[in-house]
Amino acid sequence: MGSMISSADVVVTSPGRNYVLLRVTTEDGLVGWGDATLNGRELAVASYLRDHVVPLLVGRDAHRVEDTWQYLYRGAYWRRGPVTMAAIGAVDTALWDLKGKAAGLPVYQLLGGAVREGVYAYAHAFGWDHGELVASVDRRLAEGFRAVRVQFGVPGLDAVYGVHLGAAAYEPAGRGRGPLVERWAGAPYLRHAPGALAAIRDHVGPDVDLLHDVHHRLTPVEAARLAKDVEPIRLFWLEDVTPAENHHALDLVRQHSTTPLAIGETFTTIWDCQELLVRGSIDYIRAAVTHAGGLSHVRRIADLAALHGVRAAPHGPSDLSPINLAASLHLALSTHNVAIQEYMGHPGEAHEVFRTAYTYADGYLHPGDEPGLGVEVDLVAAERFPYEPAYLPVARTVDGTVWDW
Ligand code: KDG
Ligand code: MG
To answer: For 293-308, how does the pLDDT look when each residue is reduced to its tens digit (9 = 90+)?
Structure first.
């Protein structure tokens, strides 16, 4: 009784960066929130939701989370892809939020209850040179993190993924203009990366987990060489070594090293993950709650991964809103094979819009015990931050050929 969806609205707000949110309201006045943000292509998902999904939601039973997922996925006929799956993910997440609020329970309880006391978190550190990177790593360690992603400048390249440009904190999406063009060359990166990572291992000692993200840039044989060269550094993982569409590339990397491999932040369904999981080509699957169809679908991906000894580690960048992070934490607290949560934080202005129940202490996150996801959105504050078009950078090699960013 009272669980019929009476309205659903899309909220686009830009507190420091663009977020697309879905608010679902039931006839008895409960409100559930989902995140539908697709960095650099935000309004496509806003339109998919507003024009095609919201009219289907009104009048449905909010408790029928699984039926609604299947209805939106199978019912559209056109399946998969980041726009469709971010829209479905937002609906699914909002319905779980509503179910938790209706039950008076945090979502992790509805997913089976806690399987751990806290969610192991990794933070980002970056620097153009060794000194700057060490200072950044040390700040993270002082904050209590025991797992740190390290990204570094490369001599000969004037912009690299994961390292700030100018005085601004690292934020790749440029607002109000076309995409920034970054130059890429594999050879200088491959010469520099193993030494840069080894120097950080020497600095932190054996007990800190180190991660590194290659952001899909290497060819298969380059990736195999890097994974082999960094083997003695004992990384927690090496992320996205090759473009995500070419699953066979990771077999080559696998054959040449025991460096753990992570991939999947651009995957949108279990079908994108299946081959890599079944073939045993990876160690961590990074599909995000928002981009891969919501809590229901990412739990399914984690279950498939578990069959193959692979652990889940959903993507958690600042370009997904605190609603995504909260949902990811409820999943991580209640899912046996979630290994770690990326915790990049959000721009200061975002905290004016989102009130969150999740907490961080001593290297671990917890989603909190408020009913639902534990995130509320201040709509008056959201209006103060209007949308501005933003683009992720594009990469070109030194001769001007477009490369993977
Ligand atoms: O929008 C793109 C970002 O989400 C991505 O560049 C972040 O690779 C990323 C990560 O691992 O957080
Ligand atoms: Mg990444």
So the answer is: 999 999 999 999 999 9
